[in-house]
Amino acid sequence: MSTATTPCCIRTPRNRAPNSLSLVIPCYNEEDVLPELRRRLQELVAQYSFPVEVVLVDDGSKDKTWPLICQYSQEDTFIKAVRLARNFGHQTAITCGLDQTRGEVVVILDADLQDPPELIPEMINEWKDGYDVVYGQRRKRSGESAAKKFFAFAFYRIFEKIAGLQVPRDTGDFRLMDRRAVDALQSLRERHRFVRGMVSWIGYHQKAIQYDRPERFAGVTKYPFRKSLFLAIDAITSFTYAPLRLASYLGLATSFFAFMYIGVVIILKICGINFPGYTSIMASILLLGGLQLTVLGILGEYVGRIFEQGQQRPLYLVDQVQGEPLDSTSAERKQAQS
To answer: What's the CA gap between 247 and 286, in Å, rounded?
Structure first.
């Protein structure tokens, strides 16, 4: 399923190679994967005559990820190493990487090689055909539990229903974006980020490339169920106030049944029918208490996000940066685009 393009806009094929290419790869405790990732990136870069930069963002790793990234940036001129001051999270690490890029075309992919770099040439071909966003859509998800697959299946469909935004189903953050799409995405500086939803929100011409997602090359997943659940909550609260509306519906429904119950009690009293009320009273108290706490929790999620956004703190802090692969070509790219 591909995201519909704006009907009033005509897609114009570019029919040329990009002036430059940037890859954004967030890394968190990926020391086991990085050597193979580097090898496959070297093979990819060797295919192109135009400048390529690979921005490896270390999101506060606790293993040897950062020393390896620094070593690679010294040995491979196309690698730029960025270390965040602490762990800010996967979506924020992607944002940091996008802020560091200067390529005309930017690709986001994960370090675990479940997003195959070998698909990038096919994505570039679609970019040549006029698409601004080309995203990978999974046909199969190898190496994942049935529970995680079901959660992903349900999330995209529920999100589409309640948010009214068509985020392509069965996708991750693996995508190619034209510079104008990247610039539009960078203008959205909300703290609780759901990048794939934000990319869908900005629009432009988008197309899917289907692929079979392989297992992780090495290591363990950095997105267990708990983090996936928090990302789902961020996605829903960032794009819709449907939970608040649901809280209002629950309040109205509870009030309706409460008035109905009062009417029944009065009628039974007039008819002379009495029954012990301890059980019904406790049930009512527990029901109302649970509903009240649920509504307060929903309100708290939104109020907390308003509070954090109002603090206006930076999304992330950078500790170190090594390498400037496109520094000598950025002026040429800007001149070509003008």
So the answer is: 17
Pairing state of beta strands 21-27 and 105-108?
parallel
CB 219, CB 28: distance < 8 Å: no
Length of the chain as a residue count: 338
Assess whether 45 and 139 both reside in one domain: yes
- Tell me the sheet residues that pair with 320: 83
Angle at 151 between CA 212 and CA 162, to 5 degrees: 110
Mean pLDDT check: name the lowest of 12-16, 34-38, 188-192, 215-219.
Answer: 215-219
Q: Do 146 and 266 lie in a common domain?
A: no
Domain range for 178 is 21-239+316-337
CA distances from 118 to 41, 127, 162 (A): 9, 16, 35
Q: Name residue, tokens 């693996």.
A: 174
Nearby residues of 64 by Cβ (< 8 Å), 6 or more positions away: 31
Per residue in 194-232, pLDDT tens? 887 788 888 888 888 888 877 665 656 655 656 667 666
Q: Are residues 223 and 301 in the same domain?
A: no
What is the pTM for the complete model shown? 0.69
Q: Is the CB of residue 138 less than 8 Å from the CB of residue 172?
A: yes
Same domain, 152 and 223: yes
Instruction: Say if residue 252 is in the same domain as residue 196.
Output: no
Other CB atoms within 10 A of residue 103 CB: 26
Distance CA 334, CA 187 (A): 19
State the pLDDT confidence band at 31, using cuts at 50, 70 and 90. Answer: confident
**Which CATH number characterizes residue 203's domain?**
3.90.550.10
